[in-house]
């Protein structure tokens, strides 16, 4: 690789970094502004908006509600997605290509179309808008991502390990529990974090299928209708920090597990 090419790639990389991080830094800074309006210059700084986030009962309740939805939908996605991935990993499975296409379909359908379809289907099934409906829609949307991650990990599993377990008398279920599942732990952790973030950030399906209790993205949207304020920046910053910690923990855990295997 020539020097000019390396310089050009470095310039593109740092331009991308600036493009991503400058808006985030500005968002965090606005959360410290001692004013109800967004804009520069910042004449005085305050922690009041961040303290208000942790003392606001509505925000804390909605945050817990969104977290519960994210956790439950992730559990469902992992259970369904893992078994579908194991099934699709068998290359001799009849109709595998069709089943794979149907599996990835929820991830390809535009969010607004998916939300409308879920709303109609929920009405047909008699499912009332609320927590269960949101969990159901989020889980269906997240299953393809679990499948793809787990299938990628399964493709690297040495066949000799499963064959050795079967030679020792283990049936397919025992082989999966004792051999395959421990090997899939890094993929399952990565998929679970990704699904939690997708669910926590999902606005469209939560808006269409939610009841009287809003999720955090829906609450932020409601607050935005009355105009931008440092309160919204403070809420977003807290969520950003928690998300970053979760991502770092998942990345470190996956690296450690891959080294162990």
Explain the overall architecture:
The chain is mostly helical and about 260 residues long. Helices cover about 80% and strands about 0% of the residues. It has a single domain (about 50-260), classed as MetI-like fold, CATH 1.10.3720. It has twelve helices and no strands. Helix 1 crosses helix 12, helix 6 packs antiparallel against helix 9 and helix 9 packs antiparallel against helix 12. The longest helix has about 35 residues, at about 55-90. The model has no long low-confidence stretch (mean pLDDT about 85).
Q: Could you list some keywords that capture this structure?
A:
261 residues; mainly alpha; MetI-like fold; 12 helices; 0% strand
The rounded Rg comes to: 22 Å
Q: Beta-sheet strand percentage?
A: under 5%
The separation of the N and C termini measures 34 Å
What's the overall geometry? globular
Helix count?
12
Which CATH first-tier class would you pick? Mainly Alpha
Taken together, the total number of domains comes to 1
Fraction of helical residues: over 70%
> Within the CATH hierarchy, at the fold level, what is the topology?
MetI-like fold
Major sheet summary line: none
Mean pLDDT: 83
Report the order of strands and helices. Answer: HHHHHHHHHHHH
CATH superfamily: MetI-like
The stretches of 5 or more residues where confidence is low (pLDDT under 50) are none
Identify the CATH architecture: Orthogonal Bundle
Task: Classify the secondary structure makeup into a structural class.
Answer: mainly alpha
